[in-house]
């Protein structure tokens, strides 16, 4: 996955996070008149605070921009800890989590009952941590000036497979008599699962849709066809809003206010990371990274286009993590 464009807009924020994690950067003098940086800590103490190790995660491409942004900043605080984050989708991430390949798993939906059962069978205990809110965004080509406000019922009619060739004029006779071109996240994606739950009601997605776990491929598809429609996380729309149109749902456009207030319904949703309890107890680097993630997820969520949780909720999530140590 390419480096997240919004990171270039958060350089000041990133520097502040890195300095805060390292204990500050004021210059002091020791008894011999030599300079020390790092607040009141000596260089020896700072070195003792540095960790070594590795941390592995995988999962949702929707959650990835937040976590990748935090990884970039964490490298400044703990340069000897290697953090790897894959983006195989929520379902694919849980498969690796169940197989014991990862310490944490990012998800754009709640864990399913069958995934819980497999984790129990594998002897893996886990904890769910919420890190932000997202507004699943329906997008169209910018030249599409007819489907800019759709009802939930119209979305169902568009996206549910019914054996017909879908045309825009099927939704409204005044719209173009042109075939609709569909782009959707893949079936391993939590975004697909969420859309299936709240829009499709468990019915089959249109068979003609192009599916991909790579949200950037979906962006390119919709941006390249006037008759295209697709959906993915709000941050991907923000990054590409110069080449995409956004669809209001029942008159409400997704933005920070409507997502946080849940006015953008039913497509506002929480974002999660699931941590392996044993990893938090036994892998000091994994625990430290997750603690850093929760401390900074709110700032990073806002920086990359999502919506942060209330401060009190981040304290609650941190308490859940600290109870595992």
UniProtKB/TrEMBL annotation:
The organism's place on the tree of life at top rank: Bacteria
Keyword Kinase attached: no
Residue stretches making up the PBP domain: 46-295
Major subcellular site: membrane
Pfam annotation, one family: PBP_like_2
Function: Involved in the system for phosphate transport across the cytoplasmic membrane. Part of the ABC transporter complex PstSACB involved in phosphate import.
PANTHER family linked to this entry: PERIPLASMIC PHOSPHATE BINDING COMPONENT OF PHOSPHATE ABC TRANSPORTER, PHOSPHATE-BINDING PROTEIN PSTS
Subunit structure: The complex is composed of two ATP-binding proteins (PstB), two transmembrane proteins (PstC and PstA) and a solute-binding protein (PstS).
Family of this protein: Belongs to the PstS family.
Protein name as catalogued: Phosphate-binding protein
Species, as recorded: Lysinibacillus alkalisoli
Lineage of producing organism: Bacteria, Bacillati, Bacillota, Bacilli, Bacillales
Gene encoding the protein: pstS
């Amino acid at each position: 996955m390419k480096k997240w464009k919004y990171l270039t807009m958060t350089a000041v924020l990133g520097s502040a996070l890195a300095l805060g994690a390292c204990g500050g950067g004021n210059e002091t003098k020791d008894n011999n008149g030599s300079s020390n940086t790092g607040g009141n800590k000596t260089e020896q103490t700072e070195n003792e605070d540095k960790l070594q190790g590795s941390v592995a995660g995988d999962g949702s491409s929707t959650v990835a921009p937040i976590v990748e942004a935090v990884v970039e900043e964490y490298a400044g605080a703990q340069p000897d800890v290697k953090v790897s984050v894959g983006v195989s989708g929520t379902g694919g991430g849980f498969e690796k989590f169940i197989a014991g390949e990862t310490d944490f798993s990012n998800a754009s939906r709640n864990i399913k009952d069958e995934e819980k059962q497999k984790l129990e069978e594998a002897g893996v205990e886990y904890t769910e941590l919420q890190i932000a809110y997202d507004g699943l965004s329906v997008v169209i080509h910018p030249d599409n000036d007819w489907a800019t406000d759709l009802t939930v019922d119209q979305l169902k009619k568009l996206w549910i497979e019914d054996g017909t060739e879908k045309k825009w004029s099927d939704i409204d006779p005044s719209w173009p008599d042109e075939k609709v071109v569909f782009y959707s996240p893949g079936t391993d994606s939590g975004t697909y699962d969420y859309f299936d739950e709240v829009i499709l009601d468990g019915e089959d997605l249109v068979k003609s849709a192009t599916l991909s776990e790579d949200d950037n491929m979906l962006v390119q598809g919709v941006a390249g066809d006037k008759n295209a429609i697709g959906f993915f996380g709000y941050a991907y729309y923000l990054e590409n809003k110069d080449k995409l149109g956004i669809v209001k749902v029942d008159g409400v456009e997704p933005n920070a206010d409507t997502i946080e207030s849940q006015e953008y319904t039913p497509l506002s949703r929480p974002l999660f990371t699931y941590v392996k309890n044993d990893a938090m107890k036994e892998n000091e680097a994994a625990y430290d990274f997750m603690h850093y993630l929760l401390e900074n997820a709110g700032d990073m969520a806002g920086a990359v286009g999502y919506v942060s949780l209330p401060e009190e909720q981040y304290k609650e999530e941190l308490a859940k993590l600290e109870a595992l140590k």
